[in-house]
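Model it.
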Amino acid sequence: MIRLRTIWKIKKVALIVLLLSACNDFLDEDPDNRVELDNLEKASQLLVNAYSTASPNFTDWMTDNVQFTQGTNKRLSHQQMYAWEDVTTGPNEQDTPDFFWFQTYSAISHANEVLAILEDLPVNGESQARKDAIEAEALLTRAYGHFMLVNMFGQHFGQSGDGVPYIKEPETVFLDTYERRSVRRVYDDIEDDLLDGLEKVDDSFYNNSGKYHFNRNAALAFASRFYLFKRDFVRCKQYSDELLGSNPGAFVRDLTSQQFQLAGSSVTEYPRLYTSPELPANLMLMRKISLVQRTDFAYGPESTFYSSLFDTSIFGGLTDERENPAFVKGLNAVYPARYENLFERSSLNSSVGFPYYIHIAFSGEEVLLNRAEANAFLGNLDESIADLQVLSEKRFSGGTPTITLNDLQTFYNSTDDINNVLSYIIFLERRKEFIMQGLRWFDLKRYFIPVVHDLEGGSTIQLNGDDERKALQIPKSAVEVGGLEPNPR
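Modeled.
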């Protein structure tokens, strides 16, 4: 069982007012300026808070993308994650599992409030479409929040073990209790919300801010990822096809273009361009309160490893444009220039506030690689190669990259089944494409890949492919106060 904090401040205030009213009947009017959810516009505005501000990119510190980094500030939580230990610093420290847990459940609570109020809001024929669109966004945000939680705090789909509570109702009592559900049951609930949301999602109500909402393309990308993780490759391909259409290259940013080449000379312009809502490749963007984009914090890819990763290619002599530009991180590492380091002051005259960046929640490149992987497992080898070809043409400069099955078998010097060889190259391309963007950890879980980390003194530690620690530990407060069963260690 778990007790979740009532985090929505409006509800707390409402509860206090209710208690006071019982003793003081003169409080006939609200003594504050809280918002009453009495129309569709207010419900829509509340959904801004249904997107978690916690970044998933801290998971890269647990992957094989990073090595021991010298000369950076390392908090206790950084050291614990790097060693795959349970983090003990509590829910208020950003870029930690506990912070992700509570911020994401807070976001889910806002989605549930909107869904609950929609049931009671009268609508006419003209406003029904608006109501459906709001409901779709709330369902999709609720599904996405639970999807991220179950894939962090549970084992990968298909394995035994508990997942997370799936919360569908607003909190109406103080310190309500919930139960962990199996990973499979959580996936069932996610699928229900996802498909219901897809049926009603409508982009026409977003006023020039569609990339910061669950628009239809983002919902299709979510479905592509969901069914890939579920190993339902037919449906992964189905939703990927629906998004990519007849011109998948339109959803892939061209890093060889003059636009990106010119931006590469500026430490601010390149990440600004990379995360621009104007790029068709960026399907959904989210603001994340985080320090992962800082080059003086935690761990990063060691310089030699980083160069070697991008030199690993079947295209001898061609340049992988994903390698640069990159920031120097500490004394021996680098950080790919993907995110702009931003800061929001708590007030106009304040010197304190929140560091943040713009996170690419879903991209066309991910959907393309999802489809390539699905096609490989379905035996659609030519289609899988075609998707890799589309990506390669917009990643490698200095010549024309061409992929064939024979080239892949020669490159890997492998007599394995060609489906497996295709998986090798897709896994490599995913690693390059999303390095330090929070996806590698989930790929390591999906493929049961072990991880080795080097320590400062020269020794190493290893996380086995099926290690129980790949399911992050449930927050201490949820275990001790709520009685939630912790993950085994």
